[in-house]
């Protein structure tokens, strides 16, 4: 983890979910709805693409809104989450519709002691048969981050932003150093808001154990990871909308880069020296400066 990331870890107590009073279930669902709507506004979730999860590390009563219960075996052990709840979107649900009817689109997964099984709480209004196919990647990140950092809250968002995903189809960009050199150079704010940059993974089959493991490792060093030829996953221990903000910053840089490619590479962008001056002004330590 970079110095900047470590500083953010120490400073995240300012986050609204880090200490009592904790957010209510209604507030968590509303934040997921706002995040889903924004992901769709930036064209990063066509139809039923994308998914969202929120880990709540405090007692959360879910049965009034999600009265149906079914048992499940978890796709991987999650002992650090035992006794706690993960809110997660259902398979094939449209993120833009979460705010309209959270019960139709979200499930509450209560992890059992030992972290091998869970109770899945849903509503009679649910419009999905099972949890998102990327649930293993969500659960893996929550387990890893909570175990390592003792978080009480974390949001994870998977989306498919067009320009970032397009760049990952170009071999020259399918490398962490190369990608960050290109997308961090277009706006001064980017190095401040995305100082750890974007980790780039090779193509792996969606929903696979291989992708889950690589994603967990990538999100230890970065807050956004690009799944080549597929999409991104972002995390935040402040809010679900902050995770979406990180995707939006990265996608904006990728959109500038795409525009420059189309224009024949005519723009200069910020130089490394200019990015360094911005980082110095704001006290940012970044591996990309």
Automatic annotation (TrEMBL):
Query: What are the Low complexity biased-composition ranges?
Result: 1-14
Q: Could you tell me which Pfam families the record lists for this protein?
A: Aldolase_II (PF00596)
Positions the record marks as coiled coil are none
> Which domain of life, per UniProt?
Bacteria
Q: Where is this region: Disordered?
A: 1-22
BP terms from Gene Ontology: pentose catabolic process
Annotated Class II aldolase/adducin N-terminal domain residues: 30-258
Does Lyase count among this protein's keywords? Answer: yes
Q: Name one GO cellular component term.
A: cytosol
Which is one GO molecular function term here?
A: aldehyde-lyase activity
Q: What keywords are assigned to this protein?
A: Lyase, Metal-binding
Q: Does the keyword NADP apply?
A: no
What this protein is called in its record is Rhamnulose-1-phosphate aldolase
